[in-house]
Amino acid sequence: MSSRREPDVTRVVVLAGGVGGAKFTLGVREALARRGDPEATVVVNTGDDLWLSGVRLQPDIDSIVYALAGVNDTERGWGRSGDSERVNAELQEWGAGWPWFTLGDLDLGTHLARTGWLREGLTVTQVVERLSARWPLGARLLPMTDAEVDTQIVLADGRRMHFQEWWTRHRASLAPARFENPGIDRARPAPGVAEAIADADIVLVAPSNPVVSIGPILAVPGVSEALAATSATIVGVSPIIGGRVVRGMADVCLAAIGVDTAADAVARHYGARADGGLLDGWLLAEEDAALARDVDAAGIPAVVAPLWMRDAHATAAIVDACLAAAGR
Ligand code: FO1
Question: Could you tell me which residues are beta bridge partners of residue 143?
């Protein structure tokens, strides 16, 4: 594989999900374009996916596609900018779908197209390829798997619900006993995922939710093995700044699996690659500089950098810091 490479280019794979993953991917695209490096391959969480009102939704795929295309709703963090909700209002009148879950009209176009292609027999990978072809995204998106392995929340009383119900209806207020992805034991990485990881120089773990965004990607049998075997350097970016989640409710997810909402605790959760874990390096925010020694002590070389993803430019600087860390 390496004989095909230009001498100085860096092949980057990103593991991503959620709004944090979409923002990070924008920075990756900018950083790589400036360096003249090839487009990154983004392996996207599909645990958030669901069937609703007869259509298949892929929130994390769509968030990244819309963000890279520049058509995302930056206020809400999900869906299309300037969308309307006429069809959603009709669905509510029929009592169809979920009253707490909004399907925008333009967004529904995506779901209808996707569902049609799935019904015609296309794989999820082929569908994502089609969704990626409409706009020049500047990155290659791959679903983590072609299998349907939607994340479910199991509560202490044994009740279970889809991740999206727990997240959007209950705003993660019900304490989860555990997270499950039924069927994931039989899933395989989507075509190209293991190959991209094997052929990468650097794998970046986006500052996405470690439990429900990155967790499902790592749980697909074959992904962790590919990460363990790759000669690429694996660098993660902390989703926690100053002991707080940047966005979303990752703190509830972390608490459910016994991990503190702290940059060093998340690094230890992923673990040092030298000890059978994931990471060769970890970026912490300047606000968490005091924790760098603890991360180093866990066998994960720590780098302190500004981690606020204010815009694509600031995020590209974070990616530059990851690339520099990988070079060390
Ligand atoms: N999040 C909400 O908080 N409320 C919604 O009504 C909602 C609708 C929705 C529709 C399509 C889509 O792709 C995403 C949507 N989201 C909504 C976001 C989504 O629930 C989560 O933020 C992500 O899955 C977490 O990464």
Answer: 44
Distances in whole angstroms, Cα of residue 305 to Cα of each of 272, 278, 288: 20, 20, 9
- Residue pair 318/309 in contact (Cβ under 8 Å)? The answer is yes
Cα–Cα distance measured from residue 292 to residue 282, given in angstroms and rounded to the nearest whole number: 9
pTM of the model: 0.97
pLDDT digits (tens, 9 = 90+) for 152-178: 999 988 999 999 999 999 999 999 999
| Alpha carbon distance, N-terminus to C-terminus of the chain | 23
Q: Whose CA is nearest to atom 18 of ligand 1?
A: 78
Closest ligand 1 atom, CA of 17? 26
CA of 78 to the centre of ligand 1 (A): 6
Q: What homologous superfamily does CATH list for 12-50+139-325? A: CofD-like domains (3.40.50.10680)
Averages of pLDDT over runs of 10 residues in the chain (328 residues) are: 62 96 98 96 98 98 98 95 98 96 98 98 98 97 98 94 96 94 98 98 98 98 98 98 91 95 98 97 98 98 97 97 90
Ligand 1 first shell, C-beta below 6 A: 18-19, 48, 57, 59-60, 62, 78-79, 101-103, 107, 164, 167-168
